[in-house]
Each structure stands twice: as structure tokens, then as C-alpha cells.
Amino acid sequence: MASVFRPAVDAMPGYTPGEQPRQQGWVKLNTNENPYPPSPAVVQAIRDTAAGALNVYPDPNATTFRTVAAELFGVTPDWVLPANGSDENLTIITRSFCDPQDTIGYPYPSYILYETLGQIQGCSVTRLLLDKHWQWTDAAAGTMRQKCKVFFVPCPNSPSGTVWTPNQLLELLPENGVLVLDEAYGDFADNPHHGELLLDERFQKRLIITRTFSKSYSLAGIRFGFCLAHPELIEGMNRVKDSYNCDAIAIAASTAALRDQEWMLNNRDRILKTRSRLVEQLARLGFDVCPGQANFVWITHPTHDHQDIYQQLRNQRILIRFMRFPHATADKQELTGLRITVGTEEQTDTLLQALQQILH
Amino acid sequence: MASVFRPAVDAMPGYTPGEQPRQQGWVKLNTNENPYPPSPAVVQAIRDTAAGALNVYPDPNATTFRTVAAELFGVTPDWVLPANGSDENLTIITRSFCDPQDTIGYPYPSYILYETLGQIQGCSVTRLLLDKHWQWTDAAAGTMRQKCKVFFVPCPNSPSGTVWTPNQLLELLPENGVLVLDEAYGDFADNPHHGELLLDERFQKRLIITRTFSKSYSLAGIRFGFCLAHPELIEGMNRVKDSYNCDAIAIAASTAALRDQEWMLNNRDRILKTRSRLVEQLARLGFDVCPGQANFVWITHPTHDHQDIYQQLRNQRILIRFMRFPHATADKQELTGLRITVGTEEQTDTLLQALQQILH
After folding, report:
1. For the domain B40-260, what is the CATH code?
2. pLDDT, tens digit, 9 for 90 and up, residues B52-97
3. Nearest-CA distance from A196 to chain B in Å?
4. Residue A249 to residue B46, Cβ atoms within 8 A
5. Nearest by CB to B221, which of A56, A88, A220?
6. Cβ–Cβ of B249/A221 closer than 8 Å?
7. Does B29 have pLDDT greater than 90?
8. CATH number of A40-261
9. pLDDT higher than 70, residue B194
């Protein structure tokens, strides 16, 4: 019998997330998790919710969460859409804006999931090639503006940690579509914004900012994210999302997390401090370190094989990310490198010692 | 500026879930929640998980959950797909199997969300009209078999509570597609199955059963559901779902809930006992009560206005569901009625007393 799946689903390889070993004992620096625990207020909010009425449906609008998030970004709650993790933000966006004849664009190398989401939605996907300084050309941006219904930009970018300026981002604003700033790592930027861009008239009704609690708020286990956008955009996306896409515990946890800004900012500061040391030491070991603004660093080595370094670390139960980006340049050359999450001071020591041995 | 949304999204009204009042003091019998709390083992599992590593991603495959679910239904874990509530089960299914030229079918009146999901996916939706005994004709079923890529059947059905036999369901099995048994209320059926249908060769590789923890397991607040299907179907749907669609707490909670079958079955028995009394009393009050096998009853009244009854109950802070199904018969007549969730004994007393006053 022929496949009952959509041809697009049969054809797609699917997205492979970073390895999540279930056993203890790994130094896990491969999926950009926060090495520090969430605020005690979050744990308390979860316990309180668990003691309450779990038998009834959650608030489909996550009203308490949206109210707190709106305050933080200087908007009203109708600018906020709650989602089951930032992956769901992105899924809701493709389902809201992209028909089969439409095109999704994204800078490359960056987050490959955009490509998978385009395949699932059955539309075209095009890449904006970045040069070795992680920048694009005016001409290429112009093509993207004309061609794309949705343009995704991770900012800070992964794996490079690059932050582009508002004026640069404006170059990518689709003429008849939306620009999505995927700010999964937004809180780690040198100068995190507070929603100013949302009210910038040049982006009016065509900008969506996505956020997650997985990184800066130490809640990857909870799955909660949200979109910030003009209420006309939120209203349509709200009709596309499942009514009860966020559970009562995730709503309570994320609301508590957002209210404890001090906890998040303290962890951010510790991570950025560790990042400075990590960057310095990696450079001493001979790596080329990309200057980034996220909770990870992207490194390449002029002589050593990247996959070999990854594998040798893995043998010592240290997990980092070996990344391979085919066709990463205009002449279709492959880019490889290593992306390392900034862990605790202790994890960083373990990593650096292991790297020293490997490269000796 | 023209809308940036897909025309299908602009055109759709969106699904309106049942009312979820945030204030206390309502007798809430409108969204088929379980009136009893979840197992204490569930609450403990949530507390334990909250005390653990929330900063790391959950297991994308929900391995512990799938192992327990597979045992319960006599299959292997690769027959199980975890989802963020049963709504996500249904969303993953439409995204996996339905292209714009495809057709989704469902019996009518039943769960209107199927129609919304078809609209979002941009495909056609067709209704299999049910007669006043909630049955279909052979001829109509034959058309559905030929025409539909996906046919959704809620079984027990909502709002009627009807359970159709495997032989009847076979009449709806698409010739080139999948039959989806939406068993949100499956545990309340007179004779709940234990997965026998999955291994029935007549349905081989074309049957998907969906389940939720929102009803029988008293966990509407958690959002967890799952699909049961042949591994070839699960594998493709797994590539469509978001990698981390279920959070660590929901996985732990649903696993604990599934392990405490006794708790669920005790609550089921209490609900069915209350249902018997409710059915009897509603009949005495002059309602026509549909004989159903779920945790709700569907009633109509030969003389009183249904919406008026609903509104008068609402004025007393008793919420039930007034439902209106346009074009519910071959000659396009509208069907209206009231769907009442089976609550506690006390809630049922309150409801019956109020109805007696209204109908006196």
C-alpha cells in the first residue's frame, strides 16, 4: 500500500535535537541549558499549583502570565501570546502565515529547525548566506525582503552569538510578510531591549519577537515561551494555536519566573563572567573564538579536526555540540565547528582541562 | 496594507472552547472535567520533578511514559506518541496526513474542533450526517471511505455519548488514509478496550487511537495525551511533532496517573453511578435523555427552550453546555440541546434542584 502520509512528510528527514542523556554523570554543554536552577519562587508556584485543582482546564489565555509579560515589555497583554515552548512559537507562526506557494527565509548558518518547519508546512525555504563575519550583503537582503513571507532571525544568533542592529534587521523586513526575531538568547545580549522595537513604527504590524523560558530562566524542563507582536498579529495566531496549549503548572511557573527578574539577572551575570574566562582560555588553547552575546561560544580550530575533539570529549562524558553546515558559503563550502554552552565554573574547568589534554 | 495571514486563517472564525470561569463558586458542568482530584501519586510525582533539574530539557521521547502506556495496551513503546493534550494529538495528525487537496471527514454532530483543524491545515472538511439515533447510512459511509484522507470518530461521541462497534467503525476506514478514534472518553465506555483493535488486521497501519488525561485521569490542568498506532505511523508523526512537546512535569504526572489504575477506575465507577441517578432524574423532569457511555449526558426537552434553561442555570452560577448544531439533518434543520457533565453527587443535587425550579 502507498504511504498515507503527505509526500512532504515522507520526504523530510525530521529535526534531530541535541542529545539528552538520561543517565547522570555527564558534563552537559551541548543544548544551551542554564547550569543554575530556577528561582525558588518557581518551584513554590509549581507546588502550589499541584496542590490545587489540576482536574480543571487551565486558563486558555494565560491571563496572569500575559499581564506580567506585558508590563515587562511596556505593552498591553493583547501583545502577548503564550506557547508551549519557543518551538511552538515558531510552529504557530508558520501555520499562521505560510501557504504552499510562500517562502520562509533565514540566515545561514543558524537554527536549522526553521527549515524543518518549512518542510512540514509544505512551503519553500531559502537561506540568506552569512559571510565569515556573520553578515549579509545588501543585495541578498533585498532579495529576501521581496521573496519571503516570513523571515526568521535568531538574535543573538546560534551558533555565532551575533547580535544585529535594528537598522540591519530592518533590511530583512519582508515587504509583504513578517519578520520574526527569535530571541531565545535575548536576555544574554550585551544590551537586552525592553520591547522598544515593538513600538518602532518602521516595523509596525510586521514584527514578531519570540522568547523562551528554557535558557535565561532555567526552565527547559517546563516548555514555555511566548510571542510579542501587535495585537492584530496576536489575534490571528491565537486562532491557530490549540486552545489549551499551555498547562496550569507551566503558566504558574513562568509567571513566577518573570516576576523574579533579580534571580534571572544574577544567573545571567554569572554566566557572562564565566563566558569571559572561557573565551580567554579557549583562545589560549589556539581556538578561533567567535565574539558572541549568548550563553554559548562558537569556536573553530585552525588545525585540529572538530569532530575528533567532540568525540574525545564525549569519551570523557563531556558533551558539546559538533556542528556541520553544508553549503555554508557562496562556493558551497562546508562550515564545521564546535558550540559550547557556558556552564558552571566547575564544568568549565573540567572542559578546559580535557581540551588541554586533547590538544597538547 | 493587505493582511499578512494566510487567507485560510483570515477566513476562519477559530474554535471557541467551553467557558472557564476564573472565579470560585461555580458549579462547573460544561467541559467534561472530572470532579475528583488526580491520584496522590500524581501530585507527589509533580513535587519530585519540581525539586529536580528543571533547567534541563525533558526526554523528547517521553520514554518512561511510553513504556507504561504500551504495557497497558498490550503493545511495544514504539506504538505510542506523547502529545501536549489530545488537541495536539489531532493537530499532529492533520499536519501529518492532510494536504490542501485532501479531505477530512467526521460524524456530525460531534466535536467541531475537527473542522477548525481542517481549516487551519487548508484542506476540505466533510460531515457524515448522523440520524436521530446517532447512526449513519451505509451509502454515506461508503462515500466517506472513498473521499477522506483522515476520518475522525469520537468514540464515545460527544455530545451523544454513543459508542459504535468495531464493525461499524470499519465502515468508515478510509481506503487511502487513516481512521482516527478519538477516545477522549474511552475509559468511561461500558466495556473499555485494552488495545485489541490496534492488532486487528483489518485496521492494520490505518488506525490511530487518541487518548487524553484530561477526563478519566482528572488532569485537564496538565495537558497530556497520546496516540496509539502502528510504529510506521508513529514514526512519521514523531517527525512532525515539536521535539520537546511534552514537559518533564507532564511526563512524570501522566506516568504516575497511568500507574495508578485503581484510582482512575474508582473515580470512573463513582461517576457512572452518579450518571445513572442523573439520567433517571432528568427523565423524570421530562427531558429526553440520550443513552450515552461518557462522563456527560445529552438531553433535549420537548417543550422548553434549551438556551433559556442554560441561561437560567447560568444565572445561578451553574454552568452546563448549550449546544447548537446548524444543518444537523438531511433537510438542514438545526439541532440544539444541553450537554451536562457528570459532577459530584452534591453538584448533581444542586443542578437537579435548580432544574426542578426552572421547569416547575
Report:
1. 3.40.640.10
2. 999 999 999 999 999 999 999 999 999 999 999 999 999 999 999 9
3. 22
4. yes
5. A56
6. yes
7. yes
8. 3.40.640.10
9. yes
Query: Residue B1: what pLDDT?
Result: 62
Question: Distance, in angstroms, between A341 CA and closest chain B CA?
Answer: 12
Q: CA quadruple B2, B4, B7, B8: dihedral positive or negative?
A: negative
B197-204 LR contacts (CB < 8 Å, sep 24+): B197/B166, B198/B73, B198/B74, B198/B75, B198/B79, B198/B228, B198/B229, B198/B230, B199/B74, B199/B75, B200/B166, B202/B170, B202/B173, B203/B170, B203/B173, B203/B179, B204/B230
pLDDT band of B285, cuts 50, 70, 90: very high
- Return the residue of B nearest to A38 by Cα: B55
CB–CB contact A57 B222 (8 Å): no
ipTM of the complex: 0.96
CATH of domain A7-37+262-359: 3.90.1150.10
Chain A contacts in chain B segment 313-342 (CB below 8 A): none
Q: Considering all CA atoms of chain A, what is the largest pairwise distance in Å, rounded to the nearest integer?
A: 60
Q: Are the Cβ atoms of A33 and B57 closer than 8 angstroms? A: yes
The count of CB pairs under 8 A between chains A and B is: 240
Interchain contact, B1 vs A205, CB within 8 Å: yes
Interface residue A17 vs chain B (CB under 8 A): yes
- From chain A residues 142-161, the ones with a CB under 8 A of any chain B CB are 149
CB contact (8 A) between residue B60 and residue A17: yes
* B194: helix, strand or coil: coil
Q: What pLDDT digit, counting tens, does each position of A122-176 carry?
A: 999 999 999 999 999 999 999 999 999 999 999 999 999 999 999 999 999 999 9
Cβ–Cβ of B176/A2 closer than 8 Å?
yes
Strands in B288-289's sheet, in edge-to-edge order, are B288-289, B296-300, B335-341, B321-325
| Domains in chain A: boundaries | 7-37+262-359, 40-261
pLDDT tens, position by position, A21-51: 878 889 999 999 999 999 999 999 999 999 9
